[in-house]
Amino acid sequence: MIKQFLLAAGLSLLAALPLAGVARADAARIKDIASLQAGRDNQLIGYGLIVGLQGTGDSLRSSPFTEQSMRAMLQNLGISTQGGQSSSKNTAAVMVTASLPPFASPGSRLDVTVSSLGDSTSLRGGTLIMTSLTGADGQIYAVAQGSVVVSGFSAQGQAASVTEGVTTTGRVPNGAIIERELPSKFKDAVNLVLQLRNPDFSTAVRIADIVNNFAGQRYGGPIAEPRDSQEVIVQKPKMADLARLMAEIENLVVETDTPAKVVVNERTGTIVIGADVKVSRVAVSYGTLTVQVTETPQIVQPEPFSNGVTAVQPQTDISVMKEGSNVAILNGPDLRSLVAGLNSIGVKPDGIIAILQGIKSAGALQAELVIQ
Question: Are residues 47 and 154 in the same domain?
Fold first, then answer.
């Protein structure tokens, strides 16, 4: 009920906001709407052990790989484990993941994420021992080790338990040290490839035009060309430094453009309407049918001195209620009119979602409807 009230209040607030500049494209820097293809992250993964848990680790019978990893680790440290069997639950096997940032140099540090692989109940208080992190090419790029930070907690007794957050996943801040740099160098490239985070032909052409206007004044000719809706190729001038060129280009301001969208999340009742969404003139009728079934069984006692038994007599009451059967004309040439029209119908968020789906099916919603 509170969520529906807040959403209805949010739609009313949107209707009251000044939207004079809705039809105009928004301005943004190139660095905010595009990324450098050579500057992408690379994913790293590894398998490791967390030790020092307070009895919340893997049970070695249910997770045999944890015991195998422990034996292999101890043997590498020169400790023989033949003939012995451990029942300790202070160790957990985990998968370790991290993202290697672009242009990372050896010696810098990364944050890593650890996730339980066995039946451990909590990683709180544990320490990740030395784990190598490899890339997609099988090469080791970083080594991780350190104390695990877990945001969730759990407490359990004989008859009750309480859990908040996730206790089988944690982070090791600055826990990985980069040991190998990526083979490619930024300044070895002959051009810059800008990738739009939200692909759009209009925005790509505008980026190329802005860059060419700048290059015409600085270098005496155009250097940018849009390849498609996502990529813009910037050729390096002969006498230009690639890093300095990128620093100059990424701060240029571009008028962005995006397609009209309506995003609906039916699970949470969230509705997000883009600024360019328009609705053709339609008539909308929304009625909610509520059926309430109430069971009130009655106990029937037998007559005195009879051979009868006490019985339960079922009694069911069914009531049907129908609300909101008015017909409203909805016309949304801009965001203000659309929100005002939805508010005038006076339905709840789930009703607005059903109305938007119906308007889309009727062909009157001039936008893409995304249902999550």
Answer: yes
**The total number of structural domains that make up the chain:** 3
Asked if pLDDT for residue 228 goes beyond 70, the answer is yes
The whole-angstrom separation of Cα 13 and Cα 54 is 51
Residue 273 lies in a domain: yes
Task: Determine the Cα–Cα distance for residues 260 and 275; give it in Å rounded to an integer.
Answer: 7
**C-alpha closest to that of 73 among 129, 1, 151, 2:** 129
DSSP letters, 155-200, are EE-SS-EEEES-SSEEEEEEEEEE-S--S--GGG-SEEEEEESS--
- Please write down the HEC assignment for all residues of 3-35: HHHHHHHHHHHHHHCCCCCCCCCEEEEHHHHEE
Between 13 and 271, name the one with better pLDDT.
Answer: 271
Does residue 199 fall inside a structural domain? yes
* Residues facing 91 on adjacent strands: 51
Residue with tokens 């789906």: 357
Grouping H, G, I as helix, E, B as strand and the rest as coil, residue 46 is: strand
Res. 156: pLDDT tops 80: no
Domain that residue 347 falls in? 2-23+261-371
